Amino acid sequence: MKKRLQSIVLIPLTVILIYVCCSRNNPPVAPEMPAGVDSGAINVPFDFSSWTIDPDNDDIAIRFSWGDGSFSEWSDFLPSGSTVTFTHSFADTGIFLIKALAKDGADTSNYWSNPHPVKIGITHDYPYRVVAIIPVGNNPYGIVVLPDNYYAYVTNSGDNSVSVLSTWDHTVMGTFPSGDNPGNIAALPNDRYVYIAGNNAVMVMRTSDNAIVDTIPVPGASCLAPLPNGEFIYVVCYSNIAVIRTSDNTVVKVIDNIEGMDFGITVLPNGNYAYVTNDFFETVEVIQCSEDTIIKTIEVGKVPWGIAALPNSEYVYAADLSGLTVIRTSDNTIVDTISAYGFHSSVAALPDGKYVYTTNYWSNSVLVIRTSDNAIVDTITVGEWPVNIAVMPNGKYVFVANEYDNTVSVIGN
Predict the structure, then answer these.
(1) Which of 14, 213, 379, 407 has a CA between 20 and 30 Å from the CA of residue 314?
(2) Cβ of 144: how many Cβ atoms within 10 Å?
(3) Closest C-alpha to 147, from 408, 393, 407
(4) Percent of residues in the chain assigned helix, strand, coil, to nearest 5
(5) pLDDT tens digits, 343-382
């Protein structure tokens, strides 16, 4: 009888020992990227805030790294999910990366947060910070600013609509039906019409009343670009290019000796050539516009997508997963490559040609490239999944369509 009682007692003791040995403290989750100003002057105090949670619901403390070699003190221990704010001023000019770290009562930490870049004492001759965020429809995709500078048009692929934005007060003037699955969008130089690549068609919207006035059957329509005179529009259709005459919205020619899948297009401002990215064969195809004929194929980086020409027509910037390739248009030769890993889905140049902007879909940011030396001079955080970008013709603002969070970021000074 005594032996049986000993066995019974040993079982719960073993369970207790296993529980004690296996239970452990979990560190807090890495904090959210600090929130605060994007730019400012030296020796001016600025507030930065962050927060996180603890898996064990322990109280947590947070500290900041200011990116200038200094750190904040640890905050008091606060309930999980609380926001912590510290104030800091910077004694030098530069770009500083603000990060946050959390710990629990057992002094257990996890990882630093993603950095929040802050530009201190830096003057800019280009739009460099987000000055407005405009909510639009579901899954905004294509974006274009009319040549008159007054309105921007954004396609909402998730609800088959187009949002019309005021470029001056950054408000939505109205939302209008667009046809099925609207994607990329382009405007004619006369401001009267925008053309929208949709579900095996191109829809024509009249800007005076924002009504769809024509639908042109174009199988596989992906992206599009008008010639500078507005008489024709090139429509990229994955494995060919349709040429639409805008006077009667008729497909007058198909450039079909193309292999692979094309996704991006730009036409030189002088109207001589069009450049098309082919992500399957990792090339850029050069089209002579006067003949609607491919005259050269240029090998570039992996999965090229976004592409844009400088206003002087001398260079084209083609973006791919490894960065950007710079093509000199006089002889269609690669003259430079810019290292910048990411999915660069769109490229646009300022009207003075001094800077090129490219979206990085994966990092929710926009890179700014100085064209005089092709150096990356800035990285601007925008909304989630920035897919397309458009520059106002006067260069005052840059508009970015953020596909995931249903917004447009406005970059200005």
Answers:
(1) 379
(2) 21
(3) 393
(4) 5, 50, 45
(5) 888 999 999 999 999 999 999 999 999 999 999 999 999 9
